[in-house]
Amino acid sequence: MGAAVAMHERIAYSAAPERPTVHWPNGARLALWIAPNIEHYEYLPQEVRVRDPWPRVPHPDILGYGLRDYGNRVGVWRLMEVLDRYRLPCTVSLSMAVLEMYPEITEAMLQRDWELMSHGLYNTRYHWGLSEDEERAAIAQCQDIHQRVTGRALRGWFSPAASNTLATPDLVAEAGISYLCDLYHDDQPTPIRVRQGELYSMPYSMEINDSIAWRRGMETADFAQKIKDEFDTLYSEGGRVMNLAIHPFIMGQPHRIQALDDALAYMLGHSGVWCATAADILDAWRLQADPTLTSAS
Question: Is 0.90 topped by the overall pTM?
Fold first, then answer.
């Protein structure tokens, strides 16, 4: 299997009505995973190949940088306070540089036993146009930081700023990473064909995502309603995975945080909602997709 592989060659088509019913632990109707995107954007980013990291040039773009810096200085703590209220397990879409640059944030995430999914090194270091060797080295650098800080193997990968290459699935699988969040194409995990090893696509939402809503000019009341509407449909269907992607510099703002609280209260007010990490959801799904597997516990 060469590097230049079209996605339709990597993923077999599967019509949703024809799939076996998925059963989540304890009879839950819906698996819900929350993904805080805790990122670092460089003040003076390196020149990249295909897109300027900041829309305002010449650098520095203090408006763009300052807003995102607010997320790591203030917004993330406000976000954690709300998530703590519901005792939610989270899977952080994390710029790995955060683990070394912000020790207070690192300690807070580790205390909460949050799963840390790599979102690249910085969110201003795109992977578009990288050679295989360059991308392999970037993945390895993120793994090394994660292993050194957490003592655990890295389970998930989401390319920085949603950038990737045709070889990304092969390189992520080659590195021993279990799941990829780059595809946004289904409400259930999906096997991905790779050159070696195993890899699964984990449902990650670009629709129930405050960054996309923000870029479309959608404010808090509409975004909170969108979350509830998504939940209602997936909960009714059953056996689905719902992802909520949130950014401290967006939903951690004082005028938005209550809308997040309200949306979480609505969803968690329903019985049969399994709140889990992305890795836990994948493991539960794999046990049903392949009954010969045994639980890691």
Answer: yes
